[in-house]
Structures are given as structure tokens and as C-alpha cells.
Amino acid sequence: MSHATLPASPRRNRGRPKRRRTGRNILLVLLVLVLAGAGTGYYLYSRLDGNLHGVDLDKALGKDRPEKLPTSGQNILVLGSDSRSGANASLGTGTVAGARSDTALVMHIPTGRTRATAVSIPRDTLVTRPECTKKDGTTLPSAKRVMFNSVYSLAGPACVVKTVETMSGIRMDHFMEIDFSGFKGLVDAIGGVTVTVDKPIHDTSSGLDLSAGTHKLDGTQSLAFVRTRHGVGDGSDLGRIGLQQQFMLALLSEIKKQDLLGSPTKTYKIADSLTEALTTDSQLASLTSLAKFGRSMQGVDPNDMETIMMPVAYDKVDPNRVVAAEPQASTLWKAIRTDSTIPESAKKSPATGG
User: Fold this and answer.
1) 220-227: which pairs have CB atoms within 8 A and are 24 or more residues apart?
2) CA-CA distance, 117 to 335, in Å (whole number)?
3) pTM passes above 0.85
4) Is the peptide bond before 343 cis (omega within 30 degrees of 0)?
5) What is the DSSP letter of 260?
6) What is the tens place of the pLDDT at every residue in 185-244?
7) Which pLDDT does position 70 carry in this prediction?
């Protein structure tokens, strides 16, 4: 999978990613942890709790952050990282130094927590990266027109949070990241996920080779499915976002079919694979905190949860990149920031013909 290529010409016919209503994708993580915490003894609970990794956002970001508005609900940045190191090394193709944020979602749960919206940020979006402190304590200076998914590899997740806060004006209350090895473990633990594709997908970069029709994907195939870009649409990252949304629906459907409460062994296996690969902000970095947060959002109705893509346009200087489309993007972020209804016009993306 190449990180540096979008279609060479912006004039090609670009398939429009479908907006799909999703179930509780981030709540999937929380649901599993709640079940695991309730059904295991102290030893197993301690092991799962010890698997979790935390990032102290307040310490990393300081006070130079957007104000937390009283009507802004809860906002969570969800990242999927594509490190090729460690357990992830055998899960991808190509050579990529370090890790990058392969998937980025801003999850917005309005006050009252009965509905939710997830905004996908295309990884090839050119953004202004704010000044950040790297893990080694050195300073990464601010820079304009950098690829969004490069921020993670240069300065880590805290800098991604700061970049999203800078571009949106929205304070992120929480952060969650899962790497590809954990994703694979989750899918294998539940026995695979069934998806249906209208057209064949053949992508030598991701290794995905599917005929048109219905397929049950194992963990490795699922990774290829959510990472493929060359085998669908025009080969851009924008089409891939549609596949990721489709897969989330299928994954949640599979979870709902299974009797997790009636199978403590399977539940623990799922929770173990998740917690080993899960990184959160320090406020959520325990099973107790995650369970409490999950219970607080039990009122979210999956039928009222929508996933959309941040409106983008092809960059006028480099047609292989996209930039936030204005005024749509600003209108979208303002609606989320003020807990207001998102206008339909703010969901349309020039790059996809919407």
C-alpha cells in the first residue's frame, strides 16, 4: 500500500464514497471491555488492565488548546495505526518507516448521548501541523502543507490530537488508538467478518483478491479490505474510506450475532487482543475508566449514528493530494463544536463530486 499516491489527474471519474450509518464503532471496544471486566476474576482483570497503554494529553499538549464549551458534548479522536514493526510487520505490504495514522475518526457524541457522528479525515489531506513536543523531548516546529498521516510518525499521537484540534477548533476529550495486530486479533477471535462486494477487488499492494459476492474474511483478509485503495474506485484514499465504513457495519453485525455473555472464554480472548493493542489517553487507560465511559453512552442509538467524510477538494498545486474544502469543512467543524445540526451542504465534498 503506497502512502504517497493518489490518482495523477483530478479529472478522472472519481467514485463517491457512500455515507453509511454505522453502529457504535468505538463503543465496540468499550462493550467488550465491560463484558470482560464483569465476567473474569481479579487475575484476569489485572492482566487486561495491565495491557492498556495511556498517553497524558494534558501534559503533552499543555494549555494551548481549544476551550471546552459547555454544549460541545464528548469528542473522541480514534486512530488506527499502520506500524510495520513488531507484530504488525507481517500484516502489510510495502516498506514504511515507523508508523502512521492509517485511519482517523473524530467521534462526536452530543450532550444527552443519544446519537453520534463520526467524521473521517482522509489521510492524504494537506494540513498545517502545529508545533509539537516529540517523545524524546525535542520540539517539532510547525509546518504547512504536510500530509495528515505523516504527523503520527514524526511526533506521535499527541501531536495528531493537537493537529486535529488546530484544524477543527474542537477540543478532544479523549483519544483511542488500535494497531493492526490488535485489529487482526479481534476479527480472528470472533471467527471472521462477512462482507458483500458488488464488484471484484484485486489489489496487489494490499494482497486483497475478492470476486463479486459475499465473503467471510479472516483477520488478515480484513486488514487488506480496510487498507485497500488501488483495487476500488479510482485508486484514491477517498474510495477506501467507504470500504472502512462498510466493514465497521459488518463487524458490528457479527458481534451482535454472538453470545458474548454466554461465552466467557471467547469474550476474554477478544478483550485480551484488544487491550494489548489499545492505547488511550491517560484518563481512560484502565478497564474501570473504560467501562464507566462505556456505560455513560449506552443511550446512543446506532440508527442515529452517522459516519461522514470531512469535505475535501483536490489540491490545485499537487493533484495527488487533497485539502479541506471551504466553506464546507469550517461549517462542519463549527456545527460539531457548538453541538448543532450539521447542514447537508457541509457534508458535500468537491473531490468526490458531492
Assistant:
1) 220/91, 220/184, 222/183, 222/184, 222/187, 222/192, 222/193, 222/247, 223/91, 223/92, 223/180, 223/183, 223/184, 225/195, 225/201, 226/80, 226/103, 226/183, 227/1, 227/82, 227/92, 227/102
2) 11
3) no
4) no
5) S
6) 878 888 899 999 888 888 887 788 899 999 999 999 988 888 787 656 555 667 677 777
7) 80
